[in-house]
Design a protein that fits this description.
This protein is an alpha/beta fold and 474 residues long. The protein contains 15 helices and 17 strands. It has four domains: 4-166, Rossmann fold (3-Layer(aba) Sandwich); 173-348, P-loop containing nucleotide triphosphate hydrolases (Rossmann fold), CATH 3.40.50; 353-431, K homology (KH) domain (GMP Synthetase, Chain A, domain 3, 2-Layer Sandwich); 438-473, no CATH class. The strands form four sheets. Strands 2-3-1-4-5-6 form a six-stranded mixed sheet, sandwiched between helices. It has a six-stranded mixed sheet with strand order 8-9-7-10-11-12, with helices on both faces. Strand 5, helix 4 and strand 6 (140-142) form a beta-alpha-beta unit. The protein is flat and about 105 Å long. The relative contact order is 0.07. Mean pLDDT is 79; it is low at 29-38, 166-171, 198-210 and 230-245.
Length: 474
Amino acid sequence: MKPVIALVGRPNVGKSTIFNRMTRSRDALVADQPGLTRDRHYGIGKVGERPFIVVDTGGLNHEAINIDELMQQQVMQAVAEADVLLFVVDGRDGLLAGDEAIIAQLRPFGKRIVLVVNKTEGQESVIAGAEFQVLGLSQCHAISAAHNHGIGSLVEAVLEPFPADDEEDDEHKGIRIAVVGRPNVGKSTLVNRILGEERVVAFDQPGTTRDSIFIPFERDDQHYVLIDTAGVRRRSRVSEAIEKFSIIKTLQAISSAHVVILVLDAHQNISDQDARLLGMVIDSGKALVIAVNKWDGLSSEARDKIREELDRKLSFVDYAKCHFISALHGSGVGDLYPSIEQGWLSSTRKQSTPNLTRLLQQAVQQHAPPLVRGRRIKLRYAHQGGHIPPLIIIHGNQIDAVPTDYKRYLENYFRNALKLEGTPIRIEFKGGDNPYKDKRKVPDKVHAKKRQGAKLEPTKRQARNRKKAVRRRT
């Protein structure tokens, strides 16, 4: 699983700026105003080949009242789910009573805590962190998030104890399937139906899920590993005031999977939470199967209406197979397996360079790219650049000018020609250096001198022609 890093600290110490630096994005709102981050914000970061999940939290206030109390609960939930806590303090303000109060709140969780002294531009790192040594934290990093100073070394030090991804991949052989969906759509019931036994606690109560579990099983000589965002939770503890939908565990499950089953509830419209989950799957590039649960008992009119809504709202993932199932009664569950295997095969299949280049030439013949400033975009050859999702790299000239519509056309053409089902496809363009780029500098200088009226020495050909002209006249 990807390690989870939570940013915690007082308001306005620079957590959101650190989040944006770590994720190389501008997803977190940043302003010189305390309390701007109310809810948790999740992002994916990567250092070299090592990915991680980072959580930006609201500022902790040891004198919290009203809305801040709800925000405190959000922060503590992030702390409970994280592997490492980055305790961010303000190097300009120095040690405050609020910092000591927050450390007292964090220690009972037993998590690894790394002290991050932000806003230390112009200061020696040893001097910047000296005042905070009384907190008793063994690791201290002085950074300046605003100037992107010290962020890389901080992340590398935080990730050092965690194993690389390739070590984890060997632990679970077979096609890894993640079952995701918003609360109470029947994920755990579907897992139990697939496994044929009560491996996961399931009953009609949202929020039964607390953690991800890996369940290996075999069907028709094919090995699978089912990743369910469902940890066994006793019925008596369901009423606890915790988050009912763990984004961290869902992100980890999607990241570890080859194929994702998104479970929707046929009795409810597609919600913003469903769309957010779907966005996570698309961003991950994993193969996708959609399971519309609780299909039994619906009238034919209701079913037609649901199909129309799905066709309209899910048109952008038309590559994913949609199944209508009843996890409780088992109807349609067996039909998921062919789509799972097809999605996995499509996302991992190797493609030869000659075949991809031939398909590229055919696509250009059928629909040529547009002209750019009177010049044609030239797409020369294609080769495979990776798997899960399939990545096709196209080489050519003026690739920066390729319109989005034409890129989408190429994606659809390759998907249909290669018969890729259940998986997205990515296209990247690479341009080559112009071999005549440096040779054009001399004519440019010559033309510039001509424009300035400077006298130029004639070339050998020009000298010969002038001598011939003189001889003819004489």
